[in-house]
Amino acid sequence: MTQTSIFTEPVTPEEVNASQIVDGQMARHLGMEITEIGADYMTARMPVDYRTIQRIGILHGGASLALAETVGSIAASYCVDRSQFFIVGQEINANHLRPVRDGEGYVYATAKPVHLGRTSQVWDIRIRNEEGKMVCISRFTVAVLRKPAG
């Protein structure tokens, strides 16, 4: 049995990367890109390099949160009628579980919904290293807002 997608329109990583990961914005500066979209999840990756590490040479917690909020926001935005609604982040938290050192490749964040409501959504975002080990767990809440008329 094939699972129905949570996303309101068919979308590919290439389309998202071309339209949502925009030059001049944080996600592009940090090297983020969407790598996979499934029926009920979206995955993005981010390099662990000079842009995303802290002074002692490990992945910066703020960079992990930026990755989590980026993939969560993009995924959430494809769960509403984008012609009528938009989403904004309300709250994000994270538990940092293991360090990732500079040069250890990428970290991968997978966002899955916990709740897809009419006015809010809650997302679980798991960040893993290249070996698949959990690096960070985040919970992200967004508000679903109606676009202004005109």
What would you say this structure looks like, in words?
- The chain is an alpha+beta fold.
- It has a single domain (13-146), classed as Roll (Thiol Ester Dehydrase, Chain A).
- It has three helices and six strands; from the N terminus they run ααββαββββ.
- A six-stranded antiparallel beta sheet has the order 1-2-4-5-6-3.
- The longest helix has 17 residues, at 61-77.
| Rg over CA atoms | 15 Å
Question: What distance lies between the first and last C-alpha atoms, to the nearest angstrom?
Answer: 42 Å
Q: Name the strands of the widest sheet in spatial order.
A: 1-2-4-5-6-3
Low-pLDDT sequence parts: none
Helix content: 10-25%
- In terms of DSSP E residues, the strand content is 35-45%
CATH class equals: Alpha Beta
Write a brief caption for the model.
The protein has three helices and six strands; from the N terminus they run ααββαββββ.
